[in-house]
Amino acid sequence: xxxxxxxxxxxxQPGGSLRLSCRASGRGTSIVAMGxxxxxxxxxxxxxxxxxxxxxxxxxxxxxxxxxxxxDKAMTAVYLQMDSLExxxxxxxxxNIRDRWGRDDFWGQGTQVTVSS
Length: 117
Hints:
- By secondary structure, the protein is mainly beta.
- The protein has no helices and 11 strands.
- The strands form 2 sheets. Strands 2, 4, 5, 6, 9, 10 and 11 form a 7-stranded mixed sheet that branches.
- A hairpin with a 5-residue loop joins β7 and β8.
């Protein structure tokens, strides 16, 4: 079993920055990809960014150039640097991982990001 804990959310003004962190723990974890999703109540959860064990990255078009994902070499932590935040970025941000057996239904509890408008 894997445990994911996010931190770093908060309230910022448009144009501000936040850095989200997610740490993974648990015996038997073998993570091959880590990512960030976000969700607004009543809407679908969407992929924000993802990074693999070899460092490949993927970003939603809406955040390209503003957000940057990174990880530690052990694949036990993933970070999301968010710059030039916009009101449309307001959401609950969730950490997600995929293990080497292809399982990807592992989520943190979420951290709220609110950008005032």
